[in-house]
Amino acid sequence: MTTFLWVSFLVLASIIGNIMWLRPSSSDRALIKQRDFAKSQGLSVNLRVAPEWLGQKPGQGLIAQYRYPLTTQPVALGRWRWHEGLLNWQPLDDKSAWLTSPPWPTPAPAGWLGIDVRADGVVLYWREDGQIQTVEQFIRLLKTVFA
Q1: Which long-range contacts (CB under 8 A, 24 or more apart) does 136-143 make?
Q2: What digits encode the pLDDT tens for the residues 66-125?
Q3: How far apart are CA 78 and CA 118, in angstroms?
């Protein structure tokens, strides 16, 4: 009888231990809350491999892609990449955009890698930080730029 109790205890302990490993960490839970908040604000959230035009090294993992839908045709179409070394935004499609100041905050908020302005929406590529305030800042910025 004692052996049966010990074996039962060990089996239950191993099952409960494995279940505890499946629980997300606190940083993962913060990212989940941030993504859920972004979705509730009308953004579409995806994790993708960084596009080549961002200039990221291969094998750095997935980056977040938050897409904000636009109802009006944006004035400044094109791709903008944040250059950490030069501390400025680099337009990639329209070379005449160098002559005007970019509509994006300079320096870029932490984690921002690039912005792709398309006819149907704005896509932000960035490294998520798990803070809802960052998503609110992004939405406020887009509403002022594309108002």
Answers
A1: 137/109, 138/66, 138/68, 138/109, 139/41, 139/43, 139/68, 141/104, 141/105, 142/68
A2: 998 887 766 667 787 887 777 778 777 777 766 677 777 778 788 888 888 888 888 888
A3: 7
The mean pLDDT of 3-10, rounded to a whole number, is 83
Note whether 117 and 74 are within 8 A (CB). yes
d(CA 125, CA 85): 18
Asked whether 130 and 68 are in contact (CB, 8 A), the reply is: no
pLDDT score for 75: 65
Distance separating alpha carbons of residues 66 and 142, to the nearest angstrom: 12
C-alpha to C-alpha distances, 73 to 26, 86, 116, 121, 147, nearest whole angstrom:
40, 30, 14, 9, 11
DSSP lists the bridge partners of residue 48 as: 63
